[in-house]
Design a protein that fits this description.
Order of helices and strands: EHEEEEEEEEE
Strand content: 35-45%
CATH topology: Immunoglobulin-like
Oligomer: single chain
Structural class: mainly beta
Helix content: under 10%
Largest sheet: 8 strands, mixed
Number of domains: 1
Distance between the termini: 8 Å
Shape: globular
CATH architecture: Sandwich
Number of helices: 1
Radius of gyration: 16 Å
């Protein structure tokens, strides 16, 4: 697997009506959202899945945010396959990070050698991130 690439500030367009609804809603609980892209090499498919033992580790405060939901990826022990030369897009939702956290690591703690791992993600105001594997 190639080195993960952190995508900074992609252009996102939100319908004005939806944006107004979101801004009017009270903030009850924070969360961190990570949109992921995994691309298979042109010569063969790859299998992906997410383990419930996937966490965010915040710094400088030692904090562990848990995976609370995921979309468009299967959970361990099932596999989801990405066809040769194609990409898969999925989203991970984590419990919120303390405001004092300035950067964090995304680590899938598994008993195998090929878990997701992205280190040194710089915190932003929206707590929405984009990562390409």
């Amino acid at each position: 697997m190639t080195q993960p690439q952190i995508i900074k500030r992609p252009k996102v367009e939100i319908e004005p009506e939806l944006l107004a609804i979101i801004k009017a809603a009270p903030l009850e609980e924070s969360q961190v959202i990570i949109h992921c892209i995994v691309s298979a090499p042109i010569y063969g498919e790859i299998g992906i899945r997410i383990w419930p033992s996937t966490y965010l580790y915040g710094s400088p405060d030692v904090h562990k945010s848990v995976l609370v939901h995921f979309e468009n990826i299967t959970a361990y022990p099932e596999w989801q396959y990405v066809a040769a030369g194609r990409s898969s897009f999925f989203t991970l939702f984590f419990s919120g990070l303390p405001k004092s956290v300035t950067h964090f690591d995304l680590i899938e703690e598994i008993p195998e050698s090929n878990g997701f791992e992205v280190r040194g993600i710089e915190r932003n105001e929206s707590d929405v991130y984009y990562v390409r594997f």
